[in-house]
Amino acid sequence: MAKDTAVTAAFVELAKKIREQKGLTIEQLADMAGVHRTTIGLLERHERTPTLQVASQIAKALNLL
Length: 65
Fold this sequence. Notes:
Layout: H1 6-21, H2 26-33, H3 37-44, H4 52-61
């Protein structure tokens, strides 16, 4: 498992929850955020920690910013 902080884990869980509430697939969110679909999957399984850039892109795609 990648190094994961409480803040990072909370962000990823919130993003996943909102993605699911909006009825978005991993692929749809990835397209909206401009990242590869495997990136979203790895993040949601806590196998990768998002960079600040990727976290920002995901947040913008989900209208969190």
